[in-house]
């Protein structure tokens, strides 16, 4: 019985530490290069700098992701309810044309970037990506307020955005 209890405590402790809330991005993630919609490279650090001074929601998504597509109406509601927030979409699509078609099909409004190596690539690893859609919220100073939110967390996301207005 003591062994089972010890194992349970150990598993909970490991899980708690791996999901620790981060307040800033790693140097590795900031140096990652993404692609803009006009096919130029830009670092994640440069993307974040463009949104400094604004509350920002980053959505990591892909056009092939059914959970991402199901969440689109909630994303549009969030944008309508929080119009002063900047929205950054980072795609994990496998092909440039799929990404561009997904933006058009879902009429996504915001800044768009493509991580060319997918979810398990360097950028995905650098932000601890384990599920999409994934939402990250930054305050006006660029500090991470929410590091891991998914499509079931929209009540939390909207409440957080309300406090940052």
From TrEMBL:
Q: Does the keyword Disulfide bond apply?
A: yes
Where, per UniProt, does this protein localize?
Answer: Cell envelope
Show where the Thioredoxin domain sits.
Answer: 16-165
Report if keyword Disulfide bond is assigned. Answer: yes
Any matching Pfam family: Thioredoxin_8
Query: Main localisation, per the record?
Result: other
- Provide this UniProt record's keywords sorted from A to Z: Cytochrome c-type biogenesis, Disulfide bond, Redox-active center
Q: What is the designated name of this protein?
A: TlpA disulfide reductase family protein
The organism is Flavobacterium sedimenticola
